[in-house]
Please model this.
Amino acid sequence: MIYALFIIIILIILYFIFIKKEHYENDNKYYFFYISKNQLQGNCTHSLNDKKIGYISDIDKKFIRSIENGYRIKARELIKLNPIVPSFNSVDFAVISIKNDIDTTLFKAISDKNLFIYTFDTIELKRINLFMDSEIKFNKINLKKFWKFNNNLIIKYNHSVDVPVVENNKADVSVVENNKADVQIVKNKEEFITRLKRDPEIEDPEYHCYGNDKLLNKKLCNAELDPFGNKKKKFSIWDRPCKKDEECDFYGKNKKYQIDGGKCINKYCELPIGVRRLSYRKYDDKGINAPFCHGNEKKECNDKYKDYIF
Model:
């Protein structure tokens, strides 16, 4: 009995050593990183608007162009770097795809420099894959283990993070960001009393504060500031789950492509790519968050192209 238990323990140890351990070398995947000589200002690594961006390979350039198109922004200049001895002096930062292999010249060249390494874990891949020839997905990796052979790189995330990787599979990524909510202020007390109407969203028990269940009041939930006058640390909005397709604004809008798009799926209204979700049914579709449509190279919607891409 003791002998059998000893064998089982040995097998478990061997499993974690040889099978379960994180292994990146020779995995035939190319991971995208944001690489810079200077520390990132802000927390949005795909904000390349009006910046000089370095790249190495054609897939790097394609990825950058896809970010531009997907987020409707434009880099000032794209500069191709030397793949053997890349210099980051002439660029604000570089977007480079790396295959983790200590035998590759590029991997060694980057590892030997004093550089900041960031990931694109906040990027919305649905936008990017609209304009990529090869679809990209997210893989969760540990940066310290990925770059374990370097002594000079400054890794900004010590935990396991999601990193875009070249692979033929599409990832479903939703990013919810802060959004300012309109707050109505009653200026005339008499008018308020004489025209008082009960808000159906308050009467309906299925409504709640999306993003903060502790707020039970609609105005507090939708307000930009907390009761103490400070900006909320967490975004919230008053809403309820959808019950049927007809409650969703984009349902039934397409006439040629993806005619059944925009339905109520698992309590959430399906939104076109590009549109930022705020809650179950509410969204932001202005400016950078405008939807993309079928029909033209830029996937932009206009009077001619009105069928949304879901």
About this structure: The chain has eight helices and 14 strands. The first helix runs from residue 2 to 18.
